[in-house]
Amino acid sequence: MSANYTEPEDLLADESFLSWYFKSGAKDQKDWDRWMAEHPEREKLVQQAVALLETVRVREAEIPVQQKQAAEKALLGKLAPLQSRQTPTAPLQSRESPTAEPRSGIYSLYSYRRWMVAAAILLLLGAGVVVVAIRSASDRVVKTAYGQITSRDLPDGSEVTMDANSRLRYSKGWKDGSSREVWIDGEAFFHVRKTPSGSRFIVHTDHFDIIVTGTRFNVVNRNGVENVLLQEGSVILHDKNGKELTMTPGEFVSFDKQQLAKRAVQPDSVTAWKDRKLVFDKTPLRELVGIVNDHYGVHIQLENASLGDSTISAILPNNNLDVLLQALEATSEFTIIRKDDQITIAAR
Fold first, then answer.
1. Higher pLDDT, 34 or 41
2. Which residues have a Cβ under 8 Å from the Cβ of 249 and sit 6 or more positions away?
3. Do 181 and 289 lie in a common domain?
4. Domain span including residue 189
5. Sign of CA dihedral 237, 208, 10, 133
6. Which of 215, 245, 269 is the last residue of a domain?
7. Burial environment of residue 329 by CB neighbours within 10 A (0 to 12, 13 to 18, 19 or more)
8. Is 297 in the same domain as 343?
9. Which residues lie closer than 8 Å to 308 by C-beta, 6 or more apart?
10. Which of 103, 105, 230, 279 could be disulfide-bonded to 269 (CB atoms 3.0-4.6 Å)?
């Protein structure tokens, strides 16, 4: 296991994580419980991986006990020749209690073999789930790299334009009459197509859901910032507490202090990223730095913390990091200091 996992697929490729999920290994259970406790910021990643597994996991009908016993008997019969090659030199002791009376070597070997068979079956089941999960997830996940903006048609003909460093996952089985669901991490602009039956289109963020039938809107769900700008049509927002809010075109709603709230914005500045521009209107410099870091995957730092309170009003190009920094420096308020891979913004 690693503390550097960044995608749910990374967890799905880890056999010990699957053992934790299926509760098939006590050690893996403890290791992953401890890992999550030591890295609480990874809880969301684990939840996403579990959601993927739950989505693709096949719920099989319960197998009759007699059938299980017959299959086990047949399998143990094929393994019987191996038993003659193994002669236990001493009785194995119960793992549950170090002080328990030792059991017979034959019985312990038989129990050990039964445990190995069960473990092998669980491993095969787990491996099958992983293959299905990874294949299904890759088919239903859209990602953008740092600095990349891309558009994609969804199964129903709806179009999504995704900002850099964003990830979208959508549910399978988009049939007319059933809900169309997507999960967004990052920023995206949706143009949702109406269906003949008026099927709902639902966008999930960390703290609320956006429910529409056909409309255009922008969504941000990144680093604790969650908001929606409605451009056309109407949407209904549902938060995790069951509260509901209806939006009309031109309205902007953000999730702040555990509640949804409308506030005034310049709509063109919110969606300027689609034209590879960043529009700032008295924006704190620390907020600008966060946006640029997210977009390009860099780590720009401020010379001192107080500089973050400085505000900037400007339209900056967003198709090249060097050009963006040059434009920022051209405001005559800041200077850009580069040293190796480190970028620092200082006051003039």
1. 34
2. 230, 231, 232, 233, 234
3. no
4. 143-269
5. negative
6. 269
7. middle
8. yes
9. 284, 285, 286, 289, 302
10. 279
Same domain? For 232 and 299 the reply is no
177 and 196 fall within a common domain: yes
Q: Residue 220 in contact with residue 200, Cβ under 8 Å?
A: no
pLDDT of residue 217: 97
Same domain membership, residue 159 and residue 58: no
Instruction: Tell me what the pLDDT averaged over the chain comes to.
Output: 78
Please tell me the total count of domains within the chain: 3
Task: Give one word for 257, left, alpha or beta, with left for phi > 0 and alpha for psi -120 to 50.
Answer: left
Section 131-148 average pLDDT? 68
Q: Taking Cα atoms as reference points, which of 236, 185, 150 lies closest to residue 51?
A: 185
Rounded Cα–Cα distance for residues 242 and 9 (Å): 31
Distance between CA atoms of residues 257 and 272, nearest Å: 26
Sequence length of the chain is 348
Give percent of the chain with pLDDT exceeding 90: 39
* 105-109, 136-140, 289-293, range with greatest mean pLDDT: 289-293
Nearest 5°: the CA angle 3, 4, 9 is 110
Mean pLDDT in residue range 96-114: 42
- Picking from 303, 330, 305, 300, the residue whose alpha carbon sits closest to that of residue 315 is 330
